[in-house]
Amino acid sequence: MVRAALALPLLAVFVVPLLLSVALVLPDTFNAQGMNDVWQHPQFAGAFRLTLLTGLASTTLALFSSLLIVARSSRSLSSRAGGFLAVPHLAFAIGLAFLIMPAGILARIIAQFAGWSAPPAWITTQDPYGLALTVALVLKETPFLVWALASVLNRDDLRQAFAGQRAVAASLGHSRRSVFLQVILPQLLPRVIWPLVAVLAYGMTVIDMALVIGPTQPPTLAQLIWVDINNADPEVNARGAAGVVLLSGVILLVVATVAALLRCASTAISGFWSKGPHQSRLRLTSLRHLPQRGRRREAPDEVSSLWNAFRIIYVLVIATLILQSVSGLWVFPNLLAEHFTLSAWKRLLTDASPVFTSLALAILTATTSLAASVLWLESVPQSKDKGLLWLSAFALCLPALVIGLGQYRLFLALAISGTATAMFFAHILPVAAYVFIMLQGPYRGFDDRFRSAASGLRASRAHFLRQVKWPMLKAALFSAFAVGFAVSMAQFVPAQLAAAGRFSTLPMEAVTLTSGGNRALTAAYGFALMALPLIVFLVAVRMGRSRWRTV
Amino acid sequence: MLELRNVALKFKDGQDLIKPFSVAMKPGEVVTLMGRSGSGKSSVLSFIGGDLPDAFEASGDISLDGTELSAVLPEHRNIARLFQDDLLFPHMTVGENLLFAVHGSSRAERLDMMRTALQRAELGGFENRGPHTLSGGQRSRVALMRALLAKPKAILLDEPFNKLDSELRQQIRDYTFAHIAARNIPALLVTHDRSDAPKGGRIFSINANGEVTHV
After folding, report:
1. Most-buried pick from A79, A353, A359, B116 (CB within 10 A)?
2. Chain A: closest CA distance from residue B149 (Å)
């Protein structure tokens, strides 16, 4: 009984709020008037088209680029993707916008060669086709999918199986590409369904990123709904709520359609792929795979050049934010501003309450999620993990609008809207989901014989946990904390709704600033939003590192 | 004296794994329990150690030097265990691994006991090295020393020689039995390989029906 009680914290901060939030949004499904109003919205058709376009295009492109990267890298990228993942979407979008906008750094660099004296007539951000939003999503989601794919490839049980199958296929004369397409890929894709659905759902419902870099007339469906939800008029508000349900339904429909299409096409696709090695190539490849001849040159550190391109873009985005945040007056074709100033940073630091609110919430929610997950994993039998893992994956695929709206209603009902408690719960839900998903595998993979060996040495459970188990799992524990911290820092929709105007966080402030004209201040907020999770991530990597350099 | 009385094992779903058997191990004696993989022989050790997995149910009594163990926590049973893998804690140095097992006394005394154990394992000067820098045989010796430093009243051996190559296997086997004899504590060895058993020692075998018989 006491042990079962240890599972309660995770249920209290994650499962119960999640289920209640969903339950509070579901009734809007039957609001016929609201649904009709969404349908009748003058911008509905255009917004709907944009949502489908940006969501599907960004997911497909991100999938292709992540597969290309994974297929061309012989080294595991799962640990290297972490730094990219720590960067909040919003901060990335702000930096990217400053990089590619008509008077942005990219245009200034081109102007040096092209001799432009005025910014080009580009519509690179907030373009009517949602291209900038799509590009931003691809750049941000590809590392996430690389991480998901690499974690599957890196799983202890699969890694060996894949290595064996690769060797067999190579001995049958298949090229590396052919092995990947015919042997690895069909086993890989079914295992990354959840991450793919999460990417699609995110792309179709993202708001903070779309407000910065997305189309405006019409905007995406999510933005349209967002405006309605924040409207005080009950009728407009109901239209927004109906829109939330409608958008979720659309996502479900898209996922179901894609799944059905893939199922129908899978025989045709595998027939297309399943070819034996080409005859003339057979000789060449089999020669190439003879190691004793030294023909097979596969550098152990080989990393796809596309991956390196991603790294360069991220560095450029970060550099842009820094440069922009200290730039004063900056006449167009010039590569550098007339003068540099720290006034934006001074302003950010004189009213630092958004920074501290975000920081406090991130530390609190990541710590709580970590503790609650560990309590669960220490007290609940592994067979019960499945349900919670499913719920976590579900929570990550659920549009933030659904959770945000449901929580908002819950907080109103409990009369805690606009309180610190509400802010805590609004932040911790996705944090707990991520932390549990990150921690479950390594924690359950721990060899329980260490516990038997330690109790044979008269070590109590507490002593064993402190001295043996947690130190051995410290890399997983620290990285779960870092991910939780980053997820909390990036919360926008549920936070904005729960705050009821009484709190401001870094992302809320940054979104507000992007509609104003102060570029330096916007960049400073964007950089702060990006830097904090990145620093925590780097510290976590450092602290999680093994004591021995060779391991 | 380690005594098992009418010890039986079954799966949670009721299926019998090992039928009731009794055996008493005298101080300094190594009794061998043989069985195929999946016969439940390792689970017998888990039951004695006090951490039988949830999938099993056990019945019967275990006593150590006259003390009934069923209500005693694993860490208070004073029974050390060795496994197929040495299970040295990878984040600790060799010295720290040994110190983990030393209880009570002053820091100076504990360090002294650790260094004496290292000398005995012919690993003097290895104190500050990581376990990963040791050879398989060296690691096995450290694991044995660590188990013995906890001053156990009995020791359970779960195929501890299984992963060693044949020459080393013989060597570590003799080394282990010699130390157990010197401590004069009872030991139970489970294995699937008859040649692991000490010469002249009593051997029990689990047959396909789960019956344990003296060989």
Report:
1. A359
2. 8
Predicted TM-score (pTM) of this structure: 0.90
Give the tokens for residue B107: 């820091």
What are the residue ranges of helices labelled H in A457-518?
461-464, 470-472, 474-489, 493-499, 506-514
Q: Per the CB < 8 Å rule, is B80 touching A461?
A: no
Is the minimum CB–CB distance between A462 and chain B shorter than 8 Å?
no
With an 8 Å Cβ cutoff, is A454 touching chain B? yes
Element (H, E) at B207: none
DSSP H or E segment with residue B75: none
Q: Mean pLDDT for each consecutive 10-residue tract of chain B (215 residues)?
A: 95 92 95 92 95 92 94 94 94 96 90 93 92 93 94 95 88 93 95 91 94 92
Residue A471 to residue B128: CA distance in whole angstroms: 18
ipTM (interface predicted TM):
0.93
At residue A108, what is the residue type?
R
Burial (CB count <10 Å: 0-12, 13-18, 19+), residue A219: buried
Measured between beta carbons, the chain B residues lying within 8 angstroms of A379 are: none
Residue of A nearest to B46 (CA): A452
The span from the CA of A337 to the CA of A330, in Å, is 4
**DSSP run (H or E) holding A300:** none
The Cα A459–Cα A462 span in angstroms is 8
Non-local (6+) Cβ contacts of B200 within 8 A are none
Q: How far is B174 from chain A (nearest CA, A)?
A: 22
One-letter identity of residue B10: K
Question: Is A451's Cβ below 8 Å from some Cβ in B?
Answer: yes
Out of A453, A472, A474, closest to residue B83 by CB: A453
Cα gap A137→A62, rounded to integer Å: 8
Chain B contact probe: residue of A379, A447, A448, A458 with most B CBs at under 10 A = A458
A450 contacts chain B (CB < 8 A): yes
Which residue shows structure tokens 């096409």?
A265
For Cα atoms A383, A399, A55, give the angle at the middle one, nearest 5 degrees. 115
- pLDDT for the residue B76: 94
- Tell me which chain A residues have a C-beta less than 8 angstroms from the C-beta of B74: 452, 455-456
